[in-house]
Design a protein that fits this description.
The protein is α/β, with parallel strands linked by helices. The protein is 44% helix and 12% strand. It contains 23 helices and 15 strands. The strands form 5 sheets. A 5-stranded mixed β-sheet has the order 2-1-3-12-4. A 4-stranded mixed β-sheet has the order 6-9-5-10, sandwiched between helices. A hairpin with a 2-residue loop joins strand 7 and strand 8. The two termini are 29 Å apart.
Length: 548
């Protein structure tokens, strides 16, 4: 049920929201531009998009997020000097919800809030604190061009207006979840078949015997990779159904706990846990602990929702001293008899990841939207992903994709990737389709040893094994409603039951814990929750069918 990143829910009370509705504007200290490489600087130009100089405050509503100072890398420095746009980060300090509450009570909301879709946004909409963006979507060119109408419809709030700017939306297929193997270990053990869960079990036993200091199967931070296995036990399914607590059964959602594929999954996971083929603290381990094992090669096989990031970092670490080492992406492991072409590790939504909203504190919301529209267009995406013209590219191909220059080709892949990641942190209106197409075009011009690990993994496996689950967005009830309280109670019941099933001492204990979970969730109102989510799901289907 855990997503790759820990989303922060906004716990705003009615009093806080009323105070916010009556409060005035806020401000933050202006960040000074720092020196750096001067790349194609010049006066701001009118490219027809309506961009004009603007300075705005930006708050990332996540405990884990620290927004770097503006203008300290080549991309944001270029934007500041050429587009005359300056962003003033407001930091969460590791306590995002509390920080936002404080800003609301103090009447000091930032101009832009970067947050999850759903209750975080809708509470601010209900408080009248956000700017409706419908007219801007009509006026400016790039979102109108790249975002499907069905996607925009799913961003509408109950009042029919759009307040959200999507990030990493797509009109194609994408995904970063999957399986990988340690090349050194896999080669040394003769590269046996790793297609079915039976194959995997035998291979993990072999690793355990031959490499006692290695984790046979790594499953990520807090065991995030475990539930990903669900897609291997059933065709056309992903772990999203576990987070919904229901799987599609005709035109309704039925309890995930009654799905035979779920039962098979927890029995298999428990078997691996009992035989110490996965880390014994899998459900508690931190991301740093996982990265340390991956980056030092103490992992034989890994399954994770963000395998491309773990794999790329681990591959770079291992190949720095041993070029033939590293990690290799593999097709998802699945149950014997399941069609491998219908196995999906992860799910993707055309809406993408999260959203930005513009608050009524902003002095010039249209200028802010115009900047975001520029970000999501070809020039903005190139600057905030590959860097500005003159760094790693000088020319474009016929489709507008950057052509790698000599610096791109000669800069060590590790160094180049680290630099580009700093740009990507500011890409708050990521256009997945444009970037993926441009990456593929760019990588096609490189030799095998110059290609990035992520791009190879994505193009060969992870995109192909991601299922479109857009129809299930916006199916969570608001937390302070009756259904929302039911959802939280069921989540608590499930968390405890799942840990009991994973760590059980026998199959009988697994089945006993599963049966207890069925009874407890039923008493807590699972049927009512699934009715609510079914209704929202079917509403989405109608919206999407009307505009596909």
């Amino acid at each position: 049920m855990r997503k790759r990143l820990t989303w922060v829910a906004l716990l705003l009370t009615s009093l806080v929201l009323l105070l916010a509705a009556c409060s005035g504007g806020g401000n933050s200290d202006t960040l000074q531009n720092t020196s750096g490489n001067n790349l194609n600087t010049g006066a701001a130009t009118d490219d027809g998009s309506g961009i004009k100089p603007v300075t705005f405050s930006f708050y990332g509503n996540y405990d884990w997020l620290t927004t770097s100072p503006w203008g300290e890398n080549e991309a944001t420095k270029w934007i500041q000097e050429n587009r005359k746009v300056t962003v003033e980060p407001v930091q969460s300090g590791g306590a995002a919800g509390e920080k936002l509450n404080t800003m609301i009570v103090g009447g000091d909301l930032p101009d832009v809030i970067f947050t999850d879709r759903g209750s975080s946004v809708e509470r601010l909409v209900q408080a009248g604190q956000l700017v409706a963006l419908d007219d801007y979507y009509e006026k400016y060119p790039n979102f109108k061009k790249y975002v499907k109408e069905s996607t925009l419809n799913l961003l509408r709030s109950d009042d029919g207006k759009i307040y959200q700017i999507p990030n990493w939306y797509t009109s194609g297929q994408f995904g970063n979840g999957g399986w990988m193997v340690n090349k050194d270990i896999y080669n040394a053990l003769g590269r046996p078949a790793l297609e079915t869960f039976d194959d995997l079990y035998q291979y993990l036993l072999l690793v355990q015997d031959k490499y006692p200091d290695v984790v046979p199967l790594e499953v990520g931070e807090k065991g995030a990779g475990l539930e990903i296995m669900y897609g291997g036990f059933k065709e056309n399914s992903t772990s999203k159904f576990i987070s919904l607590m229901g799987y599609p059964d005709g035109d309704k959602l039925s309890s995930i706990l009654d799905d035979p594929a779920y039962e098979e999954m927890v029995l298999y996971i428990n078997k691996l846990y009992r035989e110490r083929l996965i880390t014994q603290d899998a459900l508690q381990q931190t991301q740093d602990a996982v990265k340390e094992k991956v980056n030092t090669g103490r992992v034989a096989v890994m399954v994770e929702s963000n395998i491309t990031t773990y794999g790329a970092e681990g591959h770079r670490a291992l190949t720095a001293s041993h070029p033939d080492s590293g990690y290799e992406i593999i097709w998802p492991v699945h149950k014997a008899g399941v069609d491998k072409t219908k196995v999906f590790v992860s799910g993707f939504e055309t809406l993408g990841w999260n959203v930005s909203v513009i608050t009524k504190q902003a002095k010039d919301p249209e200028a802010i939207f115009a900047y975001f529209d520029w970000i999501t267009g070809p020039e903005g995406q190139k600057v905030l992903f590959f860097g500005p013209k003159g760094l790693y590219w000088d020319e474009e191909d016929a489709d507008g994709a950057p052509i790698p220059n000599e610096k791109y080709k000669t800069t060590p892949a590790n160094e180049r990737t680290d630099t580009m990641r700093k740009f990507e942190d500011f890409n708050w209106a990521g256009n997945t389709t444009f970037i993926d197409t441009a990456k593929m075009s760019l990588e096609a011009l490189l030799s095998a040893n110059q290609k990035s690990w992520e791009t190879v993994a994505q193009s060969t496996v992870t995109w192909k094994t991601a299922l479109d689950i857009t129809q299930f967005v916006n199916t969570d009830p608001l937390p302070d409603t009756e259904t929302g309280i039911i959802a939280q109670n069921i989540a608590d019941i499930y968390t405890l039951a799942y840990a009991q099933m994973v760590q059980a001492k026998s199959d009988e204990e697994v089945l006993s814990a599963l049966d207890t979970a069925r009874k407890n969730t039923a008493k807590a109102g699972l049927d009512k929750l699934l009715e609510f989510r079914t209704e929202k799901w079917q509403e989405n289907v109608k919206k999407m069918n009307l505009t596909k």
